[in-house]
Amino acid sequence: MNCYWLWRMHWSGQELTHGAVLSTAGRPKQIFGEVQAISKGFKAAADFLNNTKPTKSGLAMHFSHRAAWMFVNQPMVSGFDYMYAILNSAYHPLIHAQLRPDVILPSADLSPYRVIYTSFLPALDEDGLRERMKAWIENGGTWIVGPMSDIRTPDGAKFKDAPFRSLEEWGGVYCKYDIPAASRTVGVRWSDGRTSEGATSFDGLELRGAEALATYTGHPVEGLAAVTRNSMGKGQVIVVGTVIPPQDVQALMCEAGALPVAQASDNLVVVPREGSGGKGMIVVEVENRSGALTLPAPMIDLITGIAHSGTLELAPYSVMALRA
Predict the structure, then answer these.
(1) Is the pLDDT at 137 greater than 90, yes or no?
(2) Is the entire prediction scored with pTM above 0.90?
(3) What structural domains does the chain harbor?
(4) Which residues are CB-contacts of 110 (< 8 A; sequence separation ≥ 6)?
(5) Average pLDDT for residues 210-239, to the nearest whole number?
(6) Sequential DSSP letters for 178-235
(7) What is the Cα gyration radius of the chain?
(8) Nearest to residue 163, comparing CAs of 197, 127, 202?
(9) What mean pLDDT do residues 46-56 have?
């Protein structure tokens, strides 16, 4: 549906200059034609939209309102902003690689997912998450966790016997140093030889059964592990000890078995859908630049009625409702 805010501009009182579909005089504004086009698209794709649902990718990432408030009221790294970090260091790297995650609260059911990414979650005890994560991992899940996770009680206190409550045991590591350092970066070398940098905070990890996926190359954590992997039951725990660049987040996800939902440019939002209304995808260009999408099979754009196959070029801000 179209939700108008506002339908018609106010003529008196508050928000006299607020945008709307109609002007104060009742004349169509420049957005009027866009609303008509969207409505026409909804009508053309109605059966597909009403009788399909987005398909789950098997990947989820955690978001926590408690974590957001905890970082506001107890800054753990100077200048750290939870919303900025969760968007730019976690969510955007996933969607730009077409790794379409469900964004879930700590209370959410974990069973639909094979891989869960939990970053910047200081307290793991919301809604029994700690116990549920343990059971989920042991039953075969892959948990990519950190940085700045499992470092506080629900009341914002530190643990007295270790920097973490569970991550050392589950991750097969010992945290030798935990260093907040927003103003610096430290080099990181990955096990395949590529190099990058860690930022914001640095957990220097010694191995206690885990394998190192990445190692710090700079002071004061040089030689200590930055990213580790450890088996736990039928699953595995990947501990991320620092904020890593987007390409490294993407590589970790793919190594963990999270697969792209489409072969598409990073400026396209591609949402596969399936149900009694058929199988296909909604595609939206969101960054005002051209994009490309390679179709897995011939499809028809329900909005225009045009059949497509192979690789498509999408114009800025274009929208397609594709059904096989």
Answers:
(1) yes
(2) yes
(3) 28-55+261-324 (2.60.40.1180), 59-255 (3.40.50.880)
(4) 60, 116, 132, 133, 136, 141
(5) 98
(6) EEEEEEEEEEEEETTS-EEEEEEEEEEEEESS-EEEEEE-STTSTTSEEEEEEEETTE
(7) 23
(8) 202
(9) 97
